[in-house]
Structure formats: C-alpha cells, structure tokens
C-alpha cells in the first residue's frame, strides 16, 4: 500500500483535484462509488482514476486503457 502523503503530493493529482469539475466528480463518487459510471466518458476524471489506481498498485478500471463500454 503506497503512502497516502506521497499520492497527495503528486503534482498531477494535486492539479487534477484543483479542477472544480474533477473535484465535484470525486465528491459525488465518494458519496456513492457506483456514480463512477457517470464519469466514464470524462477524460479528466478517468485520467485521475487511472493515475490513482496505478499508484495504489492496481490496474485502471477496465484494464490498461481504462473502462470498457
């Protein structure tokens, strides 16, 4: 399990969470993880999900390229 501080200090992650659209999406997802499907076509949200997934040692949802439709 990676150090959460290292993840939150990643400049790309910090920049992504600074985007109001991405921040709102993650607030929505944190309240109901099933809402992740609402953002599967949002490249900004998916880029952050993929980056965080790899930082946690996993694969992005749907494999290497992200979610599958």
UniProtKB/TrEMBL annotation:
Pfam families: STI1-HOP_DP (PF17830). Residues 10-49 form the STI1 domain. GO terms for molecular function: Hsp70 protein binding. InterPro entries: STI1/HOP_DP, STI1_HS-bd. It comes from the Eukaryota. The keyword Ribosomal protein does not apply. The keyword Hydrolase does not apply. Keywords: Repeat, TPR repeat. One HIP oligomer binds the ATPase domains of at least two HSC70 molecules dependent on activation of the HSC70 ATPase by HSP40. Stabilizes the ADP state of HSC70 that has a high affinity for substrate protein. Through its own chaperone activity, it may contribute to the interaction of HSC70 with various target proteins. This is STI1 domain-containing protein.
